[in-house]
Specification:
Length: about 270
């Protein structure tokens, strides 16, 4: 059964979608079958792997609200081992429609149960909010990854997110773990960025990933071509960072890692 990781932070612009698509691509490059669930009405993860949201007829919205089998709407991508369940702007209305439904927080979980056995990893790109769709993602997930931007307001709102996670753990999903806090958009020329890294590591210690995602022009360019960083420029710093993050995820989960040198698997 595949591991489901929600990538969440209600603060926008912290690198959630960039992390979702490029970590997924990194896991796929390391020969692990990976699925991206785009749970954001902006559908940036959908366009970021080369699928035009305007052409999407059936999306995660229909899976959640109408019980459509997600296996029937999976899109393959340019990266081997990497698939997508797309989003559409219709997802905006889902939270209103779900309000009076029974077990409204568990609708995504029921949907994903149908594909869990088909993948090693399922990554959910959450919207920048703590609404019902994000709560659904946390209820469906085994763990949550929290991207945090290396800037002054990095910790703003992090307490609210951690509190929401505790509520989900206590009421909806006792098995939910925190996969880790990921520091993103790091610029080593800035003393402030270094201070933020130190502060986050001091507060959260082992919860913080060793891998830090550097600011990188190629990471910003790739989505405009409908590519992940792995297909856009695998030699870039961004690709190296996300491959390292993928390896760290595999090590934390005690999964065999493919080494580039000899293409053999080591524990």
């Amino acid at each position: 059964m595949g591991k489901v990781i929600a990538i969440a932070n209600q603060k926008g612009g912290v690198g959630k979608t960039t992390t979702a698509i490029n970590l997924a691509a990194g896991l796929a490059v390391l020969e692990h079958k990976t699925l991206i669930i785009d749970a954001d009405p902006q559908a940036n993860a959908t366009s970021g792997v080369g699928v035009d949201p305007r052409s999407v007829k059936t999306s995660i919205y229909e899976c959640i609200m109408d019980g459509v089998d997600p296996r029937s709407i999976i899109h393959s991508t340019a990266t081997p081992n990497l698939d997508l369940v797309p989003a559409h702007i219709d997802l905006v209305g889902a939270e209103i429609e779900m309000i009076n439904l029974p077990n409204r927080e568990k609708m995504m979980r029921r949907s994903l149960e149908q594909v869990r056995d088909d993948y090693d990893f399922i990554l959910i790109d959450c919207s920048p909010s703590l609404g019902l769709i994000t709560v659904n993602a946390l209820t469906a997930a085994d763990s949550v990854m929290i991207p945090v931007q290396c800037e002054y307001f990095a910790l703003e709102g992090l307490g609210k997110l951690l509190n929401t996670i505790k509520i989900v753990q206590s009421r909806l999903n006792p098995a939910l773990d925190i996969e880790g806090i990921l520091l993103t958009m790091y610029d080593n020329r800035l003393n402030l960025a270094k201070q933020v890294v130190e502060e986050v590591k001091t507060h959260f210690q082992q919860m913080v990933f060793s891998t830090i995602i550097n600011r990188n022009t190629k990471l910003g360019e790739a989505p405009s071509f409908g590519n992940t960083i792995m297909t856009h420029d695998i030699n870039s710093m961004g690709a190296i960072n996300y491959l390292n993050l993928a390896r760290e995820i595999l090590q934390r989960n005690q999964v065999a890692v493919v080494t580039e040198a000899d293409n053999t698997k080591t524990e």
